[in-house]
Amino acid sequence: MSFLSISNLSKDYAQHCVVNDISFSIEQGEFISLLGPSGCGKSTTLNMIAGLEVPSRGQIHLGQNDITHLPPGKRGLSMVFQSYALFPHLSVKENILFGLKARRVDKQEQLKRLKHAIELVGLEEHINKKPSQLSGGQCQRVALARSIASQAPLCLMDEPLSNLDTKLRNEMRNELRHLQKSLGLTVVYVTHDQIEAMSMADKIILLNQGKVEQQGSPESFYQTPESTFVARFIGHPPMNLITSHEHIIGVRPEHIEVQNVGHKAKIKNSDYQGAATVINVDIIDGPFHGSKNIQLSLMGKHQLTEGSDLTINWSEQEQHLFSKSTGKRIAGI
Amino acid sequence: MFKTYKAQAWLLLAPALILLVAFTYLPIGNTIWRSVFGFGVQMGNQASPENYARLLDDPVFWQVLKNSALYALITVPASIFFALSMALWVNGKIAGTGFMRLSFFTPTMLPMISVANIWLLFYSSEIGLFNAVLGWFGVSGVNWLGNPDTALYSLMTMTIWKEAGFFMIFYLAALQTISPDLYKAAKTENASSLYIFRRITFPLLMPTTLFVFVNALLNSFKLIDHLFILTKGGPNNATNLLLYYIYENSFSFFDTAYASALTVILLLILIVMALIQFGVIERRVHY
């Protein structure tokens, strides 16, 4: 039996189904990411695991226990929020001790855990400050320390890095992953950012309109997207989808090359991004004639005139096929 | 350069300064001057502490001071307590909160004079509502406003009823600014409702509580409209409050000099309380 298992979980709001029959399971020590566009139901799913929302149908098991109807405080989990959810009138120390005091943990034990947690996140000298005196990154570290100090077997994170700037987000990503591994935390991490999910998670669960679109390792999302939705969601720039008369053909921009033979295309614009140049073309000849806005990504800087022609091609192995009617992947062609 | 800036500064200050001087500082100065030089409605030319000496020997003054203190001591905490309780109640996600909010707020929209008239019908001994209700249970009625033992408390009850709804609005506004994430975080940490209130809600409401406290205290000294309708300070000065006593002295007894001395005392009390509030309490409030 898995550590955390979600079976057939659903949530309706006034006849509208926000989460529709979701099932997945997590092993102890795993870092899993609930990924999806906004409104896909990922936060609702997390809130149901936390006990902050009541599921309409389905069960949640943690270890051997059915926790579907337990109050949040009795489930044995901690939570980190996008807004940090630090108590503004309490010092860093009191914020971390809040839960331990509420749970009436032994005084000695409280201080031991406080010291351990504060050292892990490196905020020893800020222990008596109020949250308003800290930066966003430091605030999120305090929230993390609060979650660590609770020693809950499961940690839920709701877009914890989304309020931070890009540089800090990259640093925190590494730090978070490092902490998770060294402490052996089991984490359910909600995000809309594919980079966070791809770089941190052991397993990704991609949600779309309240349903699981695909679940598996980060590599599987990149290498074998199960549907056109996944294909368009993962990768930057997203996968090109070209409709032929039988199927939808998917090719990633980084797999398209400029060659002597292939499909003739007209350049619409090019976008220099430092390491690579992203070129936007319309195919004007051959079997895919009429396919517009095909993106290709070339390493380095390329000076290309808008409106000029070039020939693009890609290898058959890099090609993904999807059904025209269902959008699902067609395997083995 | 400097000269022009100075002129501009004075010009910018002028509107506020003129209003403050004309309607606050000059009257205060005049009051103090009159309390020292005045003699009935006349003005003497010799400074004398006579008006203040009279205060100390005036049993009514001490009675009035005691009434005012008791009035503030009970109505202020009670108003705050009910305001907060009602706000917590209607802030919840139960059906009909809109109606409840309106009901709690209604007393605030009525003028004090009308409220006093309504409550006069509740309190009056012969036709009053309260005595009628007591009558159903076979309890003989009380002369609420006529009995020196109950009159002041009857006034307090009405004041609390009138004030609490108004202060509820401030608490309600403050409650809605508290992020729901804080409550979610507290709940996942297994905090009970009482613990959450004690350690999160109440401390975060402290700025509002201070504001409400200051206003309730000021109101307890300055809102005396209901005395004109209900008791006129009687019976036997049992409900006479400081400001009403000042009014009586200056406009009924035409002893403006003595009224001025009383006003100076009221002013001193208010200044001392303001200093305590903003000096001591504010330091313990988190903003």
Automatic annotation (TrEMBL), chain A:
<dbReference type="GO" id="GO:0005524">
    <property type="term" value="F:ATP binding"/>
</dbReference>
<keyword id="KW-1278">Translocase</keyword>
<dbReference type="InterPro" id="IPR003439">
    <property type="entry name" value="ABC_transporter-like_ATP-bd"/>
</dbReference>
<feature type="domain" description="ABC transporter">
    <location>
        <begin position="4"/>
        <end position="234"/>
    </location>
</feature>
<protein>
    <submittedName>
        <fullName>ABC transporter ATP-binding protein</fullName>
    </submittedName>
</protein>
<keyword id="KW-1003">Cell membrane</keyword>
<keyword id="KW-0472">Membrane</keyword>
<dbReference type="Pfam" id="PF08402">
    <property type="entry name" value="TOBE_2"/>
</dbReference>
<keyword id="KW-0547">Nucleotide-binding</keyword>
<keyword id="KW-0813">Transport</keyword>
<keyword id="KW-0067">ATP-binding</keyword>
<dbReference type="InterPro" id="IPR003593">
    <property type="entry name" value="AAA+_ATPase"/>
</dbReference>
<dbReference type="InterPro" id="IPR013611">
    <property type="entry name" value="Transp-assoc_OB_typ2"/>
</dbReference>
<dbReference type="Pfam" id="PF00005">
    <property type="entry name" value="ABC_tran"/>
</dbReference>
<dbReference type="InterPro" id="IPR027417">
    <property type="entry name" value="P-loop_NTPase"/>
</dbReference>
<dbReference type="InterPro" id="IPR017871">
    <property type="entry name" value="ABC_transporter-like_CS"/>
</dbReference>
<dbReference type="InterPro" id="IPR008995">
    <property type="entry name" value="Mo/tungstate-bd_C_term_dom"/>
</dbReference>
<dbReference type="InterPro" id="IPR047641">
    <property type="entry name" value="ABC_transpr_MalK/UgpC-like"/>
</dbReference>
Automatic annotation (TrEMBL), chain B:
<protein>
    <submittedName>
        <fullName>Sugar ABC transporter permease</fullName>
    </submittedName>
</protein>
<keyword id="KW-0472">Membrane</keyword>
<dbReference type="InterPro" id="IPR035906">
    <property type="entry name" value="MetI-like_sf"/>
</dbReference>
<feature type="transmembrane region" description="Helical">
    <location>
        <begin position="9"/>
        <end position="28"/>
    </location>
</feature>
<keyword id="KW-1133">Transmembrane helix</keyword>
<feature type="transmembrane region" description="Helical">
    <location>
        <begin position="257"/>
        <end position="281"/>
    </location>
</feature>
<feature type="transmembrane region" description="Helical">
    <location>
        <begin position="69"/>
        <end position="90"/>
    </location>
</feature>
<comment type="similarity">
    <text>Belongs to the binding-protein-dependent transport system permease family.</text>
</comment>
<feature type="domain" description="ABC transmembrane type-1">
    <location>
        <begin position="65"/>
        <end position="277"/>
    </location>
</feature>
<dbReference type="Pfam" id="PF00528">
    <property type="entry name" value="BPD_transp_1"/>
</dbReference>
<keyword id="KW-1003">Cell membrane</keyword>
<keyword id="KW-0813">Transport</keyword>
<dbReference type="InterPro" id="IPR000515">
    <property type="entry name" value="MetI-like"/>
</dbReference>
<dbReference type="InterPro" id="IPR051393">
    <property type="entry name" value="ABC_transporter_permease"/>
</dbReference>
<keyword id="KW-0812">Transmembrane</keyword>
<feature type="transmembrane region" description="Helical">
    <location>
        <begin position="196"/>
        <end position="218"/>
    </location>
</feature>
<feature type="transmembrane region" description="Helical">
    <location>
        <begin position="151"/>
        <end position="175"/>
    </location>
</feature>
